Amino acid sequence: MLKRLNEAMARIEEHLDGTVPGDIDVAELARTAMTSEYHLRRLFSALAGMPLSEYVRRRRLTIAGAEVLAGRSTLLDVAVRHGYTSGEAFARAFRAVHGIGPGEARRTGAALRSQPRMSFRLVVEGSTSMRYRVVEKEAFHLVGRKARVPLVHQGVNPAIAAFVQGIGRDTSLRIHQLSDQEPAGIVSACDGLDPSRAEGTELDYWHAALSSAPPPADLDALLVPAGTWAVFESTGPYPEALQLLWRDVFTEWFPSNPYQSRPGPEILRTRPAETGADTDAVLWIPVERTGPGGA
Questions:
Q1: What is the DSSP string of 148-159?
Q2: Is pTM, for the whole model, over 0.70?
Q3: Cis peptide bond upstream of 239, omega within 30
Q4: 170-179: long-range contacts, CB 8 A cutoff, minimum separation 24
Q5: In terms of pLDDT, which residue wins out, 23 or 134?
Q6: Per-residue pLDDT reduced to its tens digit, 210-254
Q7: Cα-based torsion angle of the residue sequence 128, 246, 244, 134 in order, rounded to the nearest 10 degrees
């Protein structure tokens, strides 16, 4: 998987230096990586710590910055060569990355920021192992309350905390009683995430239960089709251990196993651990098999 991902990174560079004409097509990159566009965006974000679109923008403006300083082309020529339809649009993007406009950078020879070319490699430490299982699950309803909230990568999400706190005890009890399958009881679920998974982008957050019965009309509900799920277990301080678990799923488990993520809610069930102040977490990720016998 990492070899194919690095081939996709090489395709980006071919477009940046003009070896291959045309703009960068994420669908083409996904075909090069032999995965889906959806999974490529999520995997790249987890591995690189930034959205794929942001990496491409930074690389493009790194190359453009060198051309601006070289002074052999007009600023408009540089802008058009790197996909900008006007000098104004190029100047805005240039300033956002380098902290200075292209004209001023050329006049003063200012120091610019550089986004290095990215490649991926697997570092084998062998110090930890992941507990997981793969489950085939029939269709079910996610039933409860949902809210649109911003994505927070580290620490407590204030919008989620406020949303859950505002759900009455009676409503939470009703939701809990609707649960009739694993993961049992009230769960948290994230759906409708932006493909970039950038900090601050919005998602649907669910405080809900999984049920096979028709949902009550006065509660929010989402019909989740039948499919395959990878189930991961973790114990540690909340929410840090969970955020590290999600990271490890995408940076370690997916590159090492014949599966890719597929659209659908990511479901989390948490319970206090039997000892200490830690939390037991079970994370359900919708997946599909790749390679022989897969999708």
A1: EEE--SSS--HH
A2: no
A3: yes
A4: 171/145, 172/207, 174/216, 174/219, 175/143, 175/144, 175/145, 175/207, 175/208, 175/209, 175/219, 176/209, 178/143, 178/144, 178/209, 178/211, 178/213, 178/215, 178/216, 179/209, 179/210, 179/211
A5: 134
A6: 999 999 999 999 999 999 999 998 888 777 777 778 778 887 788
A7: -30
| Count of Cβ atoms closer than 10 Å to residue 277 Cβ | 8
What does the alpha-carbon distance between residue 265 and residue 131 come to, in Å, rounded to a whole number? 20
Q: How far apart are the C-alpha atoms of 137 and 223, rounded to whole Å?
A: 13
Smallest CA-to-CA distance from 257 within 60, 68, 35, 108 is with: 35
Are 45 and 197 in contact by the 8 Å Cβ rule? The answer is yes
Task: Give, in order, the Cα–Cα distances in Å from 43 to each of 51, 82, 84, 155, 206.
Answer: 10, 26, 27, 21, 23
- Taking each helix axis from N to C terminus, what angle separates 52-70 and 2-16, rounded to the nearest 10 degrees? 40
74-113 in b/e form (b: 16+ CB < 10 A) is ebeebbeebbbeebeebbebbeebbebbbeebbeeeeebe
Q: Give the Cα separation of 42 and 51 in Å (integer).
A: 8
Kindly report, residue by residue over 129-162, the tens digit of the pLDDT: 567 889 999 999 999 999 999 988 777 789 999 9
pLDDT (0 to 100) of residue 125: 46
